[in-house]
Design goal:
The chain is of the alpha/beta class. The chain is built from 11 helices and 22 strands. It has an 8-stranded parallel sheet. A 6-stranded antiparallel sheet has the order 13-14-15-22-19-20, covered by helices on one side. Helix 4 (51-63) runs parallel beside helix 5 (100-110), helix 6 packs across helix 7 and helix 9 (261-273) runs parallel beside helix 11 (298-304). It is globular and about 70 Å long. The structure holds alpha-D-galactopyranose. Alpha-D-galactopyranose (GLA) is lined by residues 42, 77-78, 125-127, 154, 186, 209.
Length: 413
């Protein structure tokens, strides 16, 4: 009989610990098996956060149908902090969050939602509020006691610090605190987190901040924020690092923050196909029908939530027309046609002529051997790969087809 469990049971916890060695440092493994869905305050509200905003956003998430479409996290970004007390415990700004974070988390949980919070690996956050440095274990215990479910951890004011070990410290702190908290790494891709963060966090930002534009870059001195295509074009080599529990994060969504409907849909479709977290960044309380419709397109959301967890890739490029493809479970595929440019594209796409192949997973859309039925996920048009596709794509528009092999269809000669 093995004596060790018995020792543990009779309460000799230290002896038990000494006999089995230190616990292996780890993250909470079962979280984010598919990319997280939620909302974050930063893109639309910056520092204007309050418990009223969070409560109203949670209500809007329910009323708009977003919760039904699987959005779960309501995340407070920077500027929620009041300071640290004499014992070093972090507390929220009492003016903005008079009821405290625990009460807020409880009210979200009662609605079937989860609460996210923000901090930073440095001494101060990007907004100049107290960061986690030197308080990692204490803060993690506070977040766990409050009932926090998601922590976005930023990288401002970290001169001289090592990213991999700093984030590993916070991972260990969260694990030691015992509450499963999704750990969202936000160091903007500066230290190649895709190479080390799969064992540390559940997602990592791959670029600097997003901006609600199609293809712009807005300079801020030492850094610049990036439009949709600028972020998309930086993802190619990162594909192989993404998978269940550890995702490339292309930053929070700008749907509903000023781009056109076609641009919003293309942005949303691409982020889902790339298995990025889908964290809405608009004001959910006053959404137009068009924005709500975009954010709650469950068939598009299902592409990112597919259990295979394989990020899309650029399969073909012909001038401003690009074809993006994503293998799905059960030999299905998502294939998107993107018009990057400024003029409407009219094109006939012959599935037989352009087979799509994925070297990473050894899967192919081989319409020459197999027939697929398709559904376009914005218009719900249907068809078959036996016929060429007639495409009309306005500027900055996307159309996305879900392909399913026809049951019992014989391979073509
Ligand atoms: C950084 C992050 C943003 C946001 C702000 C808050 O810029 O990348 O997403 O969290 O800080 O100050």
């Amino acid at each position: 009989m093995n004596a060790r469990p018995l020792l543990c049971v009779v309460g000799l916890a230290m002896a038990c610990f000494a006999a089995s060695g230190p616990a292996k440092a780890q993250k909470f493994d079962q979280l984010a098996q598919t990319p997280p869905l939620g909302w974050n305050s930063w893109n639309r509200f910056a520092c204007n956060v309050s418990e009223q905003l969070i409560r109203e956003t949670a209500d809007a998430m329910v009323a708009s149908g977003m919760r039904e479409a699987d959005y779960q996290y309501v995340n407070i970004d920077d500027c929620w902090q009041g300071g640290r007390d004499a014992q070093g415990n972090i507390y929220p700004d009492p003016r903005r969050f008079p009821s405290g974070i625990k009460a807020l988390a409880d009210s979200l949980h009662a609605k079937g939602l989860k609460l996210g919070i923000y901090s930073d690996a440095g001494e101060k956050t990007c907004g100049g509020f107290p960061g986690g440095r030197g308080h990692e274990f204490q803060d993690a215990r506070t977040y766990a006691a409050w009932g926090v479910d998601y922590l976005k951890y930023d990288w401002c004011n970290t001169e001289g610090m090592n990213a991999a070990s700093s984030y590993a410290t916070m991972r260990d702190a969260l694990h030691a605190a015992g509450r499963p908290i999704l750990f969202s790494i936000c160091e903007w891709g500066e230290n190649k987190p895709w190479e080390w963060a799969a064992r540390v966090g559940h997602s990592w930002r791959t670029t600097g901040d997003i901006f609600p534009c199609w293809n712009c870059e807005v300079g801020h001195g030492t850094w610049s924020s990036l439009g949709v295509l600028r972020i998309l074009d930086r993802q190619g080599p990162l594909r192989k690092y993404s998978g269940p529990g550890h995702w490339n994060d292309m930053d929070m969504l700008e749907v509903g923050n000023g781009m056109g409907e076609d641009e919003d849909r293309a942005h949303f479709t691409l982020w889902s196909m790339m298995d990025s977290p889908l964290i809405a960044g608009n004001d959910l309380r006053g959404m137009s029908d068009s924005v709500r419709h975009t954010l709650t397109n469950r068939e598009v959301i299902a592409l990112g939530q597919d259990p295979l967890g394989v990020q899309a890739f650029r399969a073909l490029a012909d001038g401003d027309l690009e074809v993006w493809a994503k293998p799905l479970a059960n030999d299905e595929w998502a294939v998107a046609f993107l018009n990057r440019g400024e003029v409407t594209l009219r094109n006939s796409y012959d599935w037989l002529r352009y087979p799509i192949g994925d070297g990473q997973t050894n899967r192919n859309v081989d319409a020459g051997r197999l027939e697929y039925h398709w559904t376009e996920l914005w218009t719900h048009a249907t068809g078959s790969t036996a016929h060429a596709l007639e495409l009309t794509l306005p500027p900055h528009a996307i159309s996305v087809y879900r392909l399913a092999p026809v049951a019992g269809a014989k391979a073509r000669p």
